[in-house]
Amino acid sequence: MKILMMARNPTLYSHRRLVEATLARGHTIDVIDTLQVYMNIETHHSQIKYKGQLLEKYDAVIPRIGASITMYGLAVLRQLEMMGVWSLNDSVAIGRSRDKLRSMQLLAHKGIDLPVTAFAHSTKYTEDMIDMVGGSPVIIKLLEGTQGLGVVLGETFASARSVIEAFRELNANILVQEYIKEAQAMDVRCLVVGGKVVASMKRTGPPGDFRSNLHRGGTAAGEEITEEERAIAVRSAMIMGLNVCGVDLLRTNRGPVVMEVNSSPGLEGIEKATGVDIAGKIIEYVETHAMSPKGKSKKMTRAEERGN
């Protein structure tokens, strides 16, 4: 099987592991820098090129699209899908998950418990927004933030209002969320592959930081999850339409709540914390579904829907 991976930096741990797992199972894989791809869109003869060369025919694509290039990355992925390449996570699902507000609206609509969240354009109603999520302290998030960047704790009403107003002066879109004190700067990352949680870890933030992201200095350890947490992670992935994703949960006094669903989860922290060969499980899923008649039928249906 010939696999294509869209990834700007092939040296990252996650990308190296996916390449290793692909080769170990006897397949070939090419890693391309998404921003070096260009295409023409023609009724009967669309083309997609990489560094001056026509891209070969691939059986499957693994999209590892960074948040900063979401729009262009999805355009490239859509072109590949329309040309008949099966995608591990399709462009519609990735786009849905990258829009934090839309993803939360969809999850809430389907009954998934979330941190209480407020969203507004005008700062005239800042006080009411803060009250809506239970009062200070509150978490203030940029919609476009990743890996803990653009996330601020407003410890008092005055500080929260100042941050909200400052972000709006920059024309930034923000969410205001309840601060869940009992989580104690810890969350649980569940790695879902093909409708199953294949690994889970607990992440703990560094001293003095409410964020648990490993990129911000947090630590990770393997963690046993409850059946309820497992069911919520799997259902959240299904609602987003993602075959592979990381589902981040907070443990609260009212039960687990979903903080985020990540369509390009990093593998380093969770593989090292759990010892699970997640890259191998991902490639095994690609093998099973990319070449199956059901997978091809599903792929064609989605491509047709995008063309309508």
Itemize the secondary structure elements and their pairings.
Blueprint: E1 2-6, H1 13-24, E2 28-32, E3 37-40, E4 47-50, E5 53-54, E6 60-63, H2 70-82, E7 86-87, H3 91-98, H4 100-109, E8 117-119, H5 126-132, E9 138-142, E10 151-154, H6 157-169, E11 174-178, E12 186-193, E13 196-204, E14 219-222, H7 227-240, E15 244-252, E16 255-262, H8 268-274, H9 278-290, H10 293-307
Parallel strand pairs: 1-2, 1-6, 6-7
Antiparallel strand pairs: 3-4, 4-5, 8-11, 9-10, 9-11, 12-13, 12-15, 13-14, 15-16
Helix pairs in contact: 1-9, 2-3
What do these coordinates show?
This protein is α+β, with helices and mostly antiparallel strands. The chain folds into 3 domains: 2-89 and 283-298, Rossmann fold; 117-179, Dna Ligase, domain 1; 182-262, ATP-grasp fold, B domain (D-amino Acid Aminotransferase, Chain A, domain 1, 2-Layer Sandwich). Helices cover 36% and strands 26% of the residues. It contains 10 helices and 16 strands. A 5-stranded antiparallel beta sheet has the order 14-13-12-15-16, sandwiched between helices. Strands 2-1-6-7 form a 4-stranded parallel beta sheet, sandwiched between helices. Strands 8-11-9-10 form a 4-stranded antiparallel beta sheet, with helices on one face. Strand 6, helix 2 (70-82) and strand 7 (86-87) form a beta-alpha-beta unit. Helix 1 (13-24) crosses helix 9 and helix 2 (70-82) runs antiparallel to helix 3 (91-98). It is globular and about 55 Å long.
